[in-house]
Amino acid sequence: MSERYEVQFPGGKREEAEPLETCLARELREELNISIGAPALFQVVRHAYPEKTVELHFFHCHIESGEAEPLQCAEIRWVKPEELTQFQFPPADDVIIEQLSQRVG
Prior knowledge:
Layout: H1 20-32, E1 35-36, E2 40-48, E3 53-60, E4 63-65, H2 94-102
Antiparallel strand pairs: 1-4, 2-3
């Protein structure tokens, strides 16, 4: 049985042949009802779980229109980078949490 994490970054699975930037824009529209400007790749993380290996693509982006609302989750929350360590994210996010937490200032 896999462990469930209540805290996650927005995003999801890419459709076949879908460009990553298009996937990001679609997922943010579906999950948070926002439109973003041109995203810039920040970090790619590969993590091996016992049952599979995942590859996560993290982007810098800004909201162009809309106000974030929880369409496919119970709650959303904006937090400062240094506050990210107070939450339990999936293990694949550990690298990005550490990098973002160190970028304070």
